[in-house]
Amino acid sequence: MPKAKLQALTTGGSAAEVEVAFYDALQKGDVAQLMACWADEDDIVCVHPGGARLIGAGAIRAAFEALLAQGPVPIHLEHVQCVDALASSVHSVIERIEIDTPAGRHEAWVIATNVYHKTAQGWRMVAHHASPGTPHKPMPLTDAPSVLH
Questions:
Q1: In sequence order, what are the residues at sequence separation of 6 or more whose Cβ sits closer than 8 angstroms to the Cβ of residue 28?
Q2: Rounded to the nearest 5 degrees, what angle is found at the Cα of 77, between the Cα atoms of 27 and 96?
Q3: If you write DSSP's letter for every residue of the chain in order, what string do you get?
Q4: Residue 84 maps to which CATH number?
Q5: CB-based contacts of 70, cutoff 8 Å, min separation 6
Q6: Residue range 39-64: average pLDDT?
Q7: What angle do CA 144, 147, 149 make, to 5 degrees?
């Protein structure tokens, strides 16, 4: 299966630009753009809220095709926290998702981690792991003690 290419994602980009393209693709329901954000590696991994661990582009594409078959996802990023290194970037994000129910439109929040590596093709996502959603907005980030144990 040929790989989707996204011209905007080049070696001159950044992990943050790939993240914007990824969430833009979800909002537009564009599987080709979404998959162009992922690295061309066999061991990329994705975990949807409450779902199984999906490994490889085929499994990830199939899951997003099923998700987007219902239409675009009204998702918005809030509180992005990044840890950057020379060739990797880890983003802890809060996703605010609008959900239509019989009782009207509601919001849900999901805490997710997105991992990006700098590849020969530029920055690409190698992992997306999202927690089960909650109907309550997560508490704001606070300064935690430097020693957890």
A1: 72
A2: 80
A3: -PPP--TT--TT--HHHHHHHHHHHHHHT-HHHHHHTB-S-TT-EEE-TT-PEEESHHHHHHHHHHHHTT----EEEEEEEEEE-SSEEEEEEEEEEEEEETTEEEEEEEEEEEEEEEETTEEEEEEEEEPPPBSSPPPPP-PPPS---
A4: 3.10.450.50
A5: none
A6: 96
A7: 115
Q: Is the dihedral of CA 1, 16, 147, 109 positive or negative?
A: negative
The domain tally of the chain equals 1
pTM of the complete model: 0.84
The two tokens of residue 77 are 């990023």
Residue 39 lies in a domain: yes
Using DSSP bridges, classify how beta strands 53-55 and 45-47 pair: parallel, antiparallel or unpaired.
antiparallel
Residue 145: inside a domain: no
Q: Report the distance separating Cα 35 and Cα 47, nearest Å.
A: 15
Four-residue CA torsion sign, 102, 128, 34, 18: positive
CA pair distance 22, 74, nearest whole angstrom: 13
Tens digits of per-residue pLDDT, 78-94? 889 999 999 999 999 99
